Amino acid sequence: MERCQVSNCSMNTMDLKCYMVLNSLTQKTGIAVLCSIVGILCVLENSLVLYLIFASPKIRKKPSYLLISSLALADVLASIVFVCSFLDFHVFNRTDSSKEIFLLKLGGVNTSFTASLGSLLLMAFDRYVCIYQPSEYKVIVTRKRAVVAMAVMWIATMITAFLPLMGWNCCKVNSPCSELFPFVDSKYLSSWICLVMILLLCIVYTYVRVLWKAHKHTVYMEKRQTQAGQRNAKMRMDVMLAKTLVMVLAIVMTCWSPVLALMTYSLFVSLNDHIRKVFAFCSTLCLVNSMVNPIVYALRSRELRSSLRNTSSRFRKKVSISESSPEADSTQKSSPIETICDDIVCNTDMNLLEG
Q1: Which SMART domains does the record cross-reference, listed alphabetically (predicted)?
Q2: Residue 209 CA neighbour count, 13 Å, CB half
Q3: In this structure, what are the phi and psi dihedrals at residue 83, rounded to the nearest 5 degrees?
Q4: N or C: which end of the chain has fewer CB atoms below 10 A?
Q5: Tens of pLDDT along 177-186?
Q6: How far is CA 329 from CA 49, 206, 320, 324, 336, in A?
Q7: Taking Cα atoms as reference points, which of 192, 189, 161, 182 lies closest to residue 81?
Q8: Between 1.10.10.10, 1.20.1070.10, 3.40.50.300, 1.25.40.10, what CATH number should domain 19-301 receive?
């Protein structure tokens, strides 16, 4: 395999051509189409989630939905910053930007993706408290605490992501540069990998505990319940919860494992162009994760789906009112409007544990 030797930083400059591994027009077209489609879908889905949450005074006051909005915001930023930066570098091969501009873009990508994982961890903790301490959930998880946790997470994420721009880069510390990211110090990359792996492990551990609690509840209900109908209903809820959590873990690990594995591999072995190409394509899986998140965490919520139906209904009514007579207008106004479901996402899980 051909190997392009990555040079160390000299006078705050580097030869970036070794990092531009997509050579053929087919590769560039394929990655451009993939990133564009996934990025557009990601922006539309997460923007819809943000609108549904903040357009409803009732929903936006609930801590669970504040955490979901944090995830949606991070995924919107991830899709915009990642797609623009990735295509600008790998497809259009622009090298005219300075080291500071490049690290600023990279910091934006790191901030959004790390904040996405941080939001997932906060949501996992929310679900854990909901399952293990349902009676104290509203006391422990308050709106104020959720806002403080989100603020701390975002600030810590931004500081960590922009450390290379603030000086921890291979040009300033005169250390070996990463073979995957220009100007990035290998030690910083290893630290960021450890941070992401800790976040992922905490998410997996928390959801495994929730899944184990649901399994214990299923066994308990099999022994305790005597009414077949009630038992079957609760069993179906347990199965649905288990399937959801397994899906969550499978998606997170599938999207992040290849990228983290290749990053870790690059710390110990000199990479050839083929592996760098594989990494370029695998990095788009993180974008796929941001696209799937609103479907898994938000649009499966009965309350948000009800809000979406109400929004669609109001839009259709406005269109029909503008085209209808005054009599039809009066009839439409008198018709009842579907109310938003009162149950938050956590309530379904709480009900599973009440017997």
Answers
A1: 7TM_GPCR_Srsx
A2: 14
A3: -65, -45
A4: N
A5: 888 898 899 9
A6: 30, 52, 8, 7, 14
A7: 161
A8: 1.20.1070.10
Q: Which token pair is 296?
A: 């898994």
> Distance between CA atoms of 24 and 88, rounded to whole angstroms?
16
In sign, the C-alpha dihedral spanning 212, 216, 222, 226 is: negative
Per DSSP, 169 falls in state B
- Burial of 129 by CB count in 10 Å (0-12 exposed, 13-18 middle, 19+ buried)? middle
The residue ranges of every structural domain in the chain are 19-301
pLDDT digits (tens, 9 = 90+) for 81-120: 999 999 998 888 887 678 888 899 999 999 999 999 999 9
Q: Are 69 and 50 within 8 A, CB to CB?
A: yes
Residue 140 — φ and ψ, nearest 5°? -75, -50
CA–CA dist 39, 49 (Å, integer)? 15
Residue type at 146 in one-letter notation: A
